[in-house]
Design goal:
heterodimer, A: about 230 residues, mainly alpha, 8 helices, B: about 130 residues, alpha/beta, 5-stranded parallel sheet
Chain lengths: ~230, ~130
């Protein structure tokens, strides 16, 4: 029962006692004080109930909105279906490219080791190997489709996470690197750059041939050393 | 002095396919005596086991020991420090190239590369062959 209603009940009970026409003045005095106390309590709990209710309504609406936004993220779909599928697609890409490379390289090695004593036989062997190489290159079409599916999954996740972050006003938290991540950051390179090598082979050659000194490197090169 | 194409060459890469490509390219260039290692630690062990490698061609990104660490260990080893060393990487930020040069690398190749580039860099390190 809300505190406001409890106070009302006590007030009613006090009125009943007073109506009983008691003779003892001290008891009437106590009842008067009790009435004052109950009225004060009524005012206090009344305002408190109202502000608490308002706070709880606000929190309830926030939780409801958060739940709706999390539902819109479709985390079960992402975790249970999309990410495992994308992982399986990438694994298939790695396997397909490895198999194709293996085939092409074996065919090339076979041709290189073929004796060219009988030219007609040699030409036939080379033609067959070349056809097999061309067939092996068909992996590119399949891997292209697989990679497109993975890109679509990443885009799907990115859109939903971005929307969630925007709506909920989420700020990025600092997360410490694991020991392995620290080692990799300090010792490994980042791998191929998206738009080709940062420093071209010609610039590297010039550095090793002594045509360019470290001191003669451009500002961008110097900046990158301090970034 | 002519380059001895029978000298042992050590190819260090954690991708077997890359090792196989290197082995084939080296074979085309006349170098048949090729050994492989999957990371710096395995390469160093092979080098310290007594086989006198005439050239090391190493990738940078490998675990647990990188090609850069291998280079530093080789240059710090009295017996191995004179071994010609070529680094091959997919990333070529200037600071990495300079760091490798300062650590004593003899040449640096950016992936992807072709046989002509490989031959030119090997020739600049070993002499014409």
């Amino acid at each position: 029962m809300p505190a406001f209603d409890v106070a009302n009940k006590i007030r009613d009970a006090l009125d009943d006692i007073k109506a009983a026409d008691l003779d003892d003045p001290r008891l009437m005095e106590v009842l008067g004080l009790a009435e004052n106390l109950v009225d004060t309590m009524k005012l206090f709990f009344g305002s408190m109930d109202h502000s608490l209710l308002s706070e709880f309504k606000h929190i309830g609406s926030y939780i409801s909105r958060t739940r709706d936004e999390i539902a819109a993220l479709r985390p079960n779909d992402i975790h249970g279906s999309r990410i495992p599928t994308a992982g399986a697609e990438l694994e298939a890409v790695v396997n397909d490219t490895e198999r194709a490379t293996e085939s092409i390289m074996t065919l090339a090695e076979d041709i290189m080791s073929t004796e060219a004593t009988d030219l007609e036989t040699y030409k036939m062997q080379v033609d067959t190997a070349m056809m097999n190489m061309i067939e092996a290159c068909s992996f590119q079409d399949i891997t292209g489709q697989r990679v497109s599916k993975v890109v679509a999954t990443l885009t799907h996740i990115e859109e939903r996470v971005s929307r969630f972050s925007e709506v909920m006003g989420v700020m990025d938290a600092e997360t410490p690197m694991t020991d392995k991540e620290k080692w990799q950051a300090e010792n490994l390179l980042n791998g191929p750059q998206i738009h080709g090598p940062a420093t071209g082979q010609d610039a590297i050659d010039a550095l090793f041939d002594g045509e360019t000194s470290e001191a003669a490197l451009g500002q961008d090169d110097i900046d990158s050393m301090f970034d | 002095m002519a380059v001895d194409t029978n000298m042992p060459v050590l190819v260090v890469d954690d991708y077997k396919t890359m090792c196989r490509i290197m082995r084939n390219l080296l074979k085309q260039l006349g170098f048949d005596n090729v050994d492989e290692a999957a990371d710096g630690a395995e390469a160093l062990e092979k080098m310290q086991s007594g086989k006198n490698f005439g050239l090391v061609i190493s990738d940078w990104n490998m675990e647990p020991m990188t090609g850069f660490e291998l280079l530093k260990q080789v240059r710090a080893d009295e017996k191995l420090k004179g071994t010609p060393f070529i680094m091959i990487t997919a990333e070529s930020k200037t600071e990495n190239v300079i760091a490798a040069k300062r650590a004593g690398v003899n040449n640096y190749i950016v992936k992807p590369f072709n046989a002509t580039t490989l031959k030119a860099k090997m020739a600049s390190v070993l002499g014409d062959f």
